[in-house]
Amino acid sequence: xxxxxxxxxxxxxxxxxxxxxxxxxxxxxxxxxxxxxKQKEELLRFRKYVDERMGRFAKDDRQSIEFQPLDKVxxxxxxEIAENGGFIAMSFGREDVDRHSVVYKKxxxxxxxxxxxxxxxxxxxxxxxxxxxxxxxxxxxxxxxxKEASISEAANCTSSxxxxxxxxSEVKPTTNYKAKYAHLIGESAAxxxxxxxxxxxxxxxxxxxNKKDMRSIEQTLADIQAKKRLRLAQQQELEQEQQAxxxxxxxxxx
Length: 254
Hints:
Ribosomal Protein S8, Chain: A, domain 1, elongated, mainly alpha
């Protein structure tokens, strides 16, 4: 017997399930299965109820139908059946409190006011529709007023800036600065130094016609060769002068 067998034999064996524990586990499993089957049957009944209600809704002249607050699973059934039937389904309210589904016919889809009212928890009827329509008109009027005020303010700012520039161009000095420095540089020099200077607008600009090289390729190559020959001739002339100067210097030495 090796070491592993010794360790395994020394360990306590797992406790055996007695008949009472087995019976309890079996009952729990059966109860779970019954609950699951009950939920399935309940969902089937609910699906049938929603399907029948949608069928009646499709045949009458109602624009929408509203369901009671339900959990997420039941609301998903409503949305699925509504989508298959060609309707529009929307949910409103707080989860686990009053969240419910409303189904609309596509030709009577909810407007912005109704969606806002239902999301706010106000519901929807003729009186609420009138109230929200009035709110929307007031909001649009306020937005238009704010927009006009912004445009007017921008125009006033532009006008003030323009008038300010105009006024600044007409400002005149209160003292004669020419006479102030006349005792230092004289009358004529002061007038010459104080003359108005103007910038040269064309400074640094070269006409486009001067940038174009109108020479052909042959003329360009010929000019390059001529420059090379001239440079070579100048270099040879410089070397000859240096040689003549060296010869003169060597002849004059004693």
